[in-house]
């Protein structure tokens, strides 16, 4: 019987506690109508308060408005506080992007949050049942959901200032219909629930009957799978967080992953780590994102190509640069820059690096940067600080002849996106004097003289040694 099964489920998972203020989302259909009737009947026994919230999405004109009036009347007969709202989803579709179902869901949950606040509710009860659970898990598997997504519908989860609870997950649609019949409830029927246009309806009409033929209690096995999967996932996710915190760093415009240390993690933790990163970076997770993308990222990280990029939904890019992986929206490198630098002056580059030029007389070395010394008569002022250009060559200190900057970047394993914003210092005649953080040129005298110049760079995380 529905009453006993649901009551035991509520007790086992502590879905309701003394003093709770429940808001029950009621469409007027069998599931939600049975749920509010059931919870209202238990209110004194459980010492909880029950209110009702209904949203008319205005899909079916007068018919959907009559659903609202029906639910309102049902609550009035039983002195249940009622909150109702009409939201014109078809009209919103003309000005906002998104699918009809996504927009309706967003509007519905937005209104339910408002009701929770106005009523002072701490629990939102929804009418999902065991058949819904079976359909959801099968849909997730078919689509390719990530680790936690494969577990289906959780029996409770955080929502607003409280929780969403689903007391009917252990019972079937048939049991709900039987309850409605026994309690003389006459729910409204939404004809769209029988249309094969929607994926869920196709699973409901074609797959679920076959499974129930094989095992009438199949929903119990799916619910057990869901609960055990969520427990396992919480444990593995916590392990993953501990490991991930040591290899992943979040910057202002991007985040970085230490590939070598990441790949030392166990394979199950790697998958979950990528999922955690994507969940963090997406403010609103795209509907098109699936486990396929997690495996795409893993293939990128394990691939032999030292420089590679992957485009994920909604503009998120994953850029591999040797042993570092960058997650970012938009381009990493930024545009080219060009600055002139005179004596007794400093500039701050778009990358945050400060470069200063001063006479060596009176200069005191500090620990905050690196320097080269230039013969005042051997260079033409002002100096130029710019990004790289095609054909750039540098006479590297300690080497014969000149070397292409492109070769220098490759030898030093500088990521592609950093090469386009790395500072190159030349004199006014175009002679490259220094590529800070990489190599010094033959123009560096190595020490200060009375008439020489000191070029100092105060670096950030983008530059390494000299």
What does this structure look like?
The longest helix is centred in the middle third of the chain and has 27 residues, at 218-244. The strands form five sheets. This protein has a six-stranded mixed β-sheet with strand order 3-2-1-4-6-5, with helices on both faces. Strands 7-8-11-10-9 form a five-stranded antiparallel β-sheet. The protein has a five-stranded antiparallel β-sheet with strand order 12-16-19-20-21, with no helix packed on it. The chain folds into three domains: 2-230, Rossmann fold; 245-329, Uridine Diphospho-n-acetylenolpyruvylglucosamine Reductase, domain 3; 338-458, no CATH class. It is built from 14 helices and 22 strands. α2 packs across α7 (173-182), α6 (130-143) packs across α8 and α11 (267-281) crosses α12. The mean pLDDT is 91. By secondary structure, it is α+β, with helices and mostly antiparallel strands. The protein is 38% helix and 21% strand. This is tRNA(Ile)-lysidine synthase. Its EC number is 6.3.4.19. One of its GO terms (molecular function) is tRNA(Ile)-lysidine synthase activity.
Biggest sheet: strand arrangement: 3-2-1-4-6-5
* Tally of separate domains: 3
What's the overall average pLDDT, rounded? 91
Question: Can you identify the CATH class of the largest domain?
Answer: Alpha Beta
Q: Any idea what the radius of gyration is?
A: 32 Å
Give the low-pLDDT segments.
Answer: none
What is the overall shape? elongated
Main pleated sheet: 6 strands, mixed
| CATH architecture annotation name of the largest domain | 3-Layer(aba) Sandwich
Within CATH, the superfamily of the largest domain carries the name HUPs
Counting H and I runs of at least 4 residues, what is the number of helices?
14
């Amino acid at each position: 019987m529905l009453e006993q099964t649901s009551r035991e489920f509520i007790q086992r998972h502590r879905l309701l506690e003394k003093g709770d203020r429940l808001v029950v989302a009621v469409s007027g259909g069998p599931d939600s109508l049975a749920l509010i009737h059931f919870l209202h009947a238990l209110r004194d026994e459980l010492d909880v308060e029950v209110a009702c919230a209904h949203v008319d999405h205005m899909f079916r004109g007068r018919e959907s408005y009559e659903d609202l009036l029906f639910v309102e009347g049902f609550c009035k007969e039983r002195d249940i506080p009622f909150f109702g709202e009409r939201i014109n989803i078809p009209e919103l579709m003309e000005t906002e992007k998104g699918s009809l179902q996504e927009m309706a869901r967003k509007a519905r949950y937005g209104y339910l949050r408002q009701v929770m606040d106005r009523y002072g509710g701490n629990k939102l009860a929804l009418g999902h049942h065991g058949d819904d659970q079976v359909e959801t898990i099968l849909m997730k598997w078919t689509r390719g959901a990530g680790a936690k997504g494969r577990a289906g519908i959780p029996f409770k989860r955080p929502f607003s200032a409280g929780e969403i609870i689903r007391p009917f997950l252990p019972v079937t649609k048939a049991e709900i219909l039987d309850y409605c019949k026994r309690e003389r409830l006459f729910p409204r029927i939404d004809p769209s629930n029988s249309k094969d246009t929607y994926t869920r309806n196709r699973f409901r009409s074609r797959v679920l009957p076959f499974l129930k033929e094989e095992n009438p209690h199949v929903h119990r096995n799916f619910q057990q799978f869901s609960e055990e999967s969520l427990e396992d996932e919480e444990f593995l996710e916590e392990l993953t967080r501990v490991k991930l915190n040591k290899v992943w760093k979040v910057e202002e415009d991007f985040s970085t992953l230490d590939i070598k240390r990441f790949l030392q993690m166990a394979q199950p933790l790697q998958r979950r780590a990528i999922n955690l990163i994507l969940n963090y970076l997406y403010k609103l997770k795209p509907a098109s994102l699936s486990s396929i993308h997690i495996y795409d990222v893993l293939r990128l990280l394990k691939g032999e190509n030292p420089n590679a990029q992957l485009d994920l939904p909604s503009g998120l890019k994953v850029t591999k640069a040797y042993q570092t992986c960058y997650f970012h929206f938009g381009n990493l490198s930024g545009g080219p820059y060009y600055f002139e630098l005179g004596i007794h002056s400093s500039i701050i580059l778009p990358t945050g690096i400060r470069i200063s030029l001063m006479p060596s007389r009176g200069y005191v070395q500090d620990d905050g940067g690196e320097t080269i010394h230039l013969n005042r008569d051997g260079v033409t002022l002002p100096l130029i600080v710019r990004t790289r250009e095609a054909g750039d060559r540098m006479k590297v200190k300690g080497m014969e002849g000149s070397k292409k900057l492109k070769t220098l970047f490759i030898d030093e394993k500088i990521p592609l996106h950093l090469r386009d914003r790395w500072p190159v210092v030349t004199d006014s005649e175009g002679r490259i004097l220094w590529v800070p953080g990489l190599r010094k040129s033959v123009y560096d005298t190595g020490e200060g003289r009375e008439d020489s110049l000191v070029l100092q760079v105060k670096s950030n995380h983008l530059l390494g040694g000299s």
